[in-house]
Amino acid sequence: MKIALVIERMDLHRGGRETSTAQVASGLAGKGCDVTIICQSGSWEAPGVEVLQLGARGLSRTGRLANFAADVEKAVKDRNFDILQTTLPIPCANVYRLRGGTIPAQQAASLRRRSLPGRLMRRITEPFNAHRRRMARYEKQLMTGRGAMCLCVSRMVQQECQKYYGAISGVEVVFNCVDVPGDETRAADRKRIREEIGAHDDAAVFLTVATNYELKGVTQSIEAFAKWRSESGDDGSRLVILGRPAPDFYMTLANDCGVADAVVFVPPTQNVFQWYAAADAVLLLSWYDPCSRVVLEAARWGVPSITTRFNGASEAFEEGGCIVVNSPLDINDIVAAFAVLADPQARDRHSQACLARSDYLGSERHVTELLDAYTRAPKIQCNL
């Protein structure tokens, strides 16, 4: 099977979407597929995978998107691909992989996490966002034109497709996956990092991994952590927030909440697993997350999580391993979740539930389900 995976930039330093694309491409190639990654720019090498760079044309982001869509169509016209899978709406694709969720759901989440004045301002400025308007038009074409199969990373995203587009037929779930490294240095990493952050052996260490602190509820995370520490009398725990260098607002917030000595801010790192090794639980109070890789990566290492119903990753842990609260604003529920995962016995039960899901969360199951779904995809339709 000849498969093309479309992504704007193939740079694994950028984040989860690029990492997921690399893992899926390798998995498909390992199954004997002929795999090409089509991108504007980027470099990455793996056996059986070609990276085709088309370049970026246009002065504006909107123009570059339109030109990229046209360039992708030209590139695939004579290559006889069976599958053209894209993570951003490209009209000629026959598989739309909604890793970022639907655009209307993204817009709803942006409003949900803002104050009333912020929501009003967003509603005023949104019509002037030409890039998002074009993205929305392309997505609607894919969702309602019946030219593409839509593969969702969670049931939450599948429900979005029905809610916003009335789409039921051709919309399937292939739950997200993550690959994780071996844990040969895990014990050493845990000891070293916990010493660095001043956490003794019995202290509970909670970890947030995020780039967009607003979207991942870091404000609420710090406030809830401070409330739990105060109510429990705990003075040894740590909250590690990884993702930005010296975030002044959040450092000030931690100080104002009286936990400046217990909240550790860590700049971005390529070795996030050393921090999973040091952590006892992950905290990700998402305002919107189609299916967080952070929660899944931690789970495959037996590290349980606290997250929200706005995170599709929580669907994998209906029998434990992840404590789900309704919203980042439900501080009392979050405090109660801190108390559960600070208890070693309760935490161990959740850890075992995570490990029981480890194989399901890996790329082997994921790639097998993708290949099965591809057999039901419509043919690629190029208009050139």
Walk me through the structure.
The chain contains 14 helices and 15 strands. With 384 residues, it is an alpha/beta fold. The protein folds into 2 domains: 2-178 and 363-374, Glycogen Phosphorylase B (Rossmann fold), CATH 3.40.50.2000; 186-356, Rossmann fold (3-Layer(aba) Sandwich), CATH 3.40.50. It has a 7-stranded parallel β-sheet with strand order 5-3-1-6-7-8-9, with helices on both faces. α8 links the parallel β10 (205-209) and β11 (238-242). The mean pLDDT is 91.
Record keyword descriptors for this entry.
384 residues, alpha/beta, Rossmann fold, 6-stranded parallel sheet, 14 helices, 16% strand, globular
Q: What gyration radius follows from the Cα positions, in whole Å?
A: 21 Å
Query: Which superfamily, in CATH terms, is the homologous superfamily of the largest domain?
Result: Glycogen Phosphorylase B
Spans of at least 5 consecutive residues whose pLDDT stays below 50 are none
The helix content, as a percent range, equals 40-55%
What is the number of strand segments? 15
Mind describing the biggest β-sheet? Answer: 7 strands, parallel
Arithmetic mean of pLDDT: 91
Strand content: 15-25%
User: What coarse outline follows from CA principal-axis ratios?
Assistant: globular
Number of helices: 14
CATH topology of the largest domain: Rossmann fold
Give me the side-by-side strand order of the main sheet: 5-3-1-6-7-8-9
Distance from N terminus to C terminus (CA atoms, Å) equals: 23 Å
Task: Give the C-level CATH assignment of the largest domain.
Answer: Alpha Beta
